[in-house]
Automatic annotation (TrEMBL):
GO molecular function: 4-hydroxy-tetrahydrodipicolinate reductase; NAD binding; NADP binding; oxidoreductase activity, acting on CH or CH2 groups, NAD or NADP as acceptor
UniProt function note: Catalyzes the conversion of 4-hydroxy-tetrahydrodipicolinate (HTPA) to tetrahydrodipicolinate.
Entry keywords, A to Z: Amino-acid biosynthesis, Cytoplasm, Diaminopimelate biosynthesis, Lysine biosynthesis, NAD, NADP, Oxidoreductase
Matches recorded under NCBIfam families: dapB (TIGR00036)
UniProt protein name: 4-hydroxy-tetrahydrodipicolinate reductase
EC number: 1.17.1.8
The species this protein was found in: Acetobacteroides hydrogenigenes
Binding residues annotated for (S)-2,3,4,5-tetrahydrodipicolinate, in chain numbering: H136, G145, T146
Domain of life: Bacteria
First-level EC class: oxidoreductase
């Protein structure tokens, strides 16, 4: 497949490595300083684009891909409030979008276990629940997209809570998410249920960015040639 990389930072470089190992060709690289090349013939000839930039550029980049007729896998976080409107646009244009707050297989297993655990724990009032995420200190958005997805999975069962808040809270009608930025941490997410007598902890710890990058390339292989809007539940039979 001819893959266009949009964003050539930490993730773009890791994706390039995995895509080449899987026999794909990186036909064009778009970074901050050549974003006008998304109108070029070379970009339009790509089978799929993989977009990992930042919360502020992602939406415009998805639009450019759709307008150029290129299916797009988007891993950027911090823009998902706009998913309903962009999904409508993608469908109206007969385009293709694959998005996920986290592309790693392990995190998507963690999401499933998290939902199931929350459905049990919500019946026991002695336990408080909190989400915590740890990332490298260059990360622009807080809380992480993964922590928001995990929180949404918990809130499905905690009907007495009416949303999440990005701070630690006690006995609140909000679910607290704590964000810690430190060093080079690739991404660690923890859900803790705490009672006066014990604690139950569910953690996913990424050891590198390899799992995210492999998932993004698998999503690109899945998306090429399709139209519509997809996410990890369409790719993984969990
Ligand atoms: N869904 C998932 O599984 C994962 C998602 N992410 C998310 O992916 C995003 C990128 O992460 P990461 O690679 O670590 O970030 P980096 O900051 O390392 O890389 C982002 C790259 O995008 C470039 N860029 C900025 N604006 C544009 C633009 N308009 N067009 C094209 N390129 C642009 C930046 O250039 P410059 O440096 O010049 O600004 C930089 O090279 C983040 O939102 C992060 O949260 C990260 C890991 C996994
Ligand atoms: O910015 C990162 O690095 C990561 N971002 C994603 C998120 O916001 O959840 C996924 C992963 O945790 C790494």
């Amino acid at each position: 497949m001819r893959i266009a990389l949009v964003g050539y930072g930490k993730m773009g470089k890791e994706i390039e490595k995995i895509a080449k190992e899987r026999g794909h060709c990186i036909s064009i690289i778009i970074d901050q300083d050549n974003s006008e090349d998304m109108n070029s013939t070379s970009f339009k000839q790509a089978d799929v684009a993989i977009e990992f930039t930042n919360p502020y550029s992602a939406l415009n980049n998805i639009n450019c891909c759709i307008n150029s007729g290129v299916p797009v896998v988007c891993g950027s976080t911090g823009w998902l409030d706009h998913l309903p409107e962009i999904s409508e646009y993608v469908k109206a244009q007969n385009g293709a979008l694959f998005y996920a707050s986290n592309f790693s297989l392990g995190v998507n297993i963690f999401f499933k276990v998290n939902q199931h655990l929350a459905s049990i724990m919500s019946k026991f009032n002695d336990y408080s629940v909190e989400v915590e995420e740890w990332h490298h200190n260059q990360k622009l958005d807080s809380p992480s997209g993964t922590a928001i997805t995990a929180a949404e999975g918990i809130l499905e069962s905690y009907t007495n809570k009416n949303g999440w808040i990005n701070q630690s809270v006690n006995d609140s009608n909000k679910l607290g998410i704590i964000s810690i930025r430190k060093g080079e941490i690739p991404g660690t997410h923890t859900v803790t249920y705490d009672s006066p007598v014990d604690k139950i902890v569910l953690t996913h710890e990424a050891k590198s960015r390899e799992g995210f990058a492999l998932g993004a390339v698998l999503a690109a292989e899945f998306l090429a040639g399709k139209t519509g809007v997809y996410t990890m539940s369409d790719l993984l039979a969990l």
